[in-house]
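Record format v2
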Amino acid sequence: MPEPTMGPPAETLAEPGDEPHRERPRRVVVTGVRTGRARADRARADRARADRARADRARADRTRADQARTDPGRGDRPAAHWSVVRDLDEQTELGAVYVRSLIRAQLRSALATCAAVAGVLVALPLLFQVPALAQARLHGVPLPWLLLALGLQPLWIGLAVRHARRAERTERDFLRLVERS
Amino acid sequence: MIVMAVTAALAALVAVLGLTAVLGSYGRRRTERTTSDFLVASRGVTPLWNASAISSEYISAAAFLGTAGLVLAHGADMLWLPLGAVAGYVLLLALVTAPLRRSGAYTISDFAEWRLGSRAVRRLVSWCVIFIGWFYLLPQFQGAGVTLRVLTRAPVWAGWAVVVAVVLLLVLSGGMRSITAVQAVQFWIKLVAVAVPAVAVLSVWQLDGAADPTTGGPPRFERVTDVRVETGVTVRVAHPTRVRATGTVDGAAHDGADLTLAPGGHTVGEGATLTFPAGARVPHVDHVPARDGTRWSMPDGASLDHGLYAVYSALLGVVLGTVGLPHILMRFYTNTCGRAARRTAAMVPVLLSLFYVFPALYGALGRVYMPELLMTGDTDATILMLPQQLLPDPAGALLTGLVAAGAFAAFISTSCGIVVAIAGTVAQCVGRGSVTVFRLGAVFALVVPLALVSEIGTLGSAVLVTLALTVSACSLCPLLVLGLWWRGLTAAGAGAGLVVGGGLAVAAGVAALFGGPWTGWPAALLEQPALVVAPISFAVMAGVSLATRRSVPRRADRAMARMHLPEEIVIR
């Protein structure tokens, strides 16, 4: 995919970190060269965030309640006051840059989750080729049975929950970003 | 004992059917205004409710009966399958649910047409959905037949008839809303049905201090045992074994005469009864290797042809196949938005993990208490037979009834889901959503597997489901993953990938079922083709798309935006 040719949005999606998002507002990472302007943007964003966060959440909740009643996302509700929303709708270059940044962020976290799953599933059968491991016992129960029937499921659950949270956080950040600009 | 168990099983059947009818009629009063209501329940199902329904559709006869049977037959090598199934839902969550829900399409064929703008691709996808459904329905029929035969001595077609009747009744009357309720409740029935008897059986095993299945030599009969062979089998005998035979053995009729089975293969005719002395080694049906406890309890692939390849290939097939299952994907359209779909998918691994703790346990105890199943090949019956084998009558019969209820719930919920998926696809494709075509489609979905089920012999139900999953892994999974994340996918690329990947997988499945018997590499490749075919399918889809990149649909960017933007941002 070609890199954006015109002025990219000063802030793009934060790479979701591992700290719980409620404790402090998301950090906004500035892509590309960190210019003075970008840094200023970030500082301004930091100052504004505290009082915006609450309003955001309230609005998102209202919108979600709206959505739940109607066919989500496909109605003809006016999108008027968000300028970037019009960009997104009309497929301008700027809108495309925004969408692409969202898709990339989501794809990155999806691939990270897939890689974790694949890593475990590729490594385990190889590990159990080692007779010492395949025959190991814990309290008389074969270790492979404990691992395959009980031990790994929490890992999958953890990965799933982590991914769902990450993806939602990425979307929240995107909404905030769209609204700000 | 038999009488009580039969009564309990029939009571269980009636109870499940009654519950199903009540929930179904409740749903019918509330919906069915338009086809959209009929198909996707107006998209108003909560995440936990929907997650229960999804888990229920996924826990088919294969998961309920087949997993325990496979563990009994092949040991720890089969523990990979449930693990892969749960992992598949993590991938489904990461790659598919939210964007697919936001695309707003009803069925996966709708998605393909909307995304790629091609009727031809739509038709191909519909055929993939139909083939996957047929492969998936075969083990449901087979499981139902085995359950009724084992519990009540009814002919196998009785089980098939029950499945056909109930599914038609449900699908034709209620539409999907009632099925959501039926499915969700049935998940919890199945969980209780597998968990409670497991705890009972495990305590009995602990109390009577019987052998540890993971140590010791190959399985032996603990006491004098009559083994009745319901369908003719070829068995392998390791040591000369003296038996008393009634019926046909090696082509000669016997009538209660003693004879010695020499080491090697022997054919035992339908309806024959062999009486083994205590301590005799259990002859194994010819596709199951006889192994000592330690080897049996090691998940190193040694029980399979070309073990490591087979393990990886089965894992890949199950994981990717779960991502592309059309009847599961259809469920996510009943969530209100992409976020709810994602939350639903995140709950499914929890529910499935709860369930999958138990089947392996039955498999292991089956090796101690029911080794004759290794000879008759009815390993799918492990979970049904163990409670009555271990527990004295009132308790044993009650638990058998409970297990039977779970088994019936398993066939009915999965079969309904698949039939709705096939019928919905046919209705959208041929009839533009007409309810009449939907109903005809339901009949069409059931007829073909019903005609084939008598031809497939003693293959375990889990083996059959793996075939369905492999077809899905090699056709719909690549289409979804590339279609959702790569704007460069073209109709030509998708079509080529579906034809090559789906075609190879279906061909391998048909050859494995109806051709053969195969040995060596051909057997490994035909039974578990995913590791070879899935990458080919991805490569063909991507390669042909790149070669035809001028024909990327003009609306690809808009489609990508719609699939990935949160619902709060409204675009056309």
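The mean pLDDT of chain B is 84.
Chain B touches chain A through 63 residues (CB under 8 Å).
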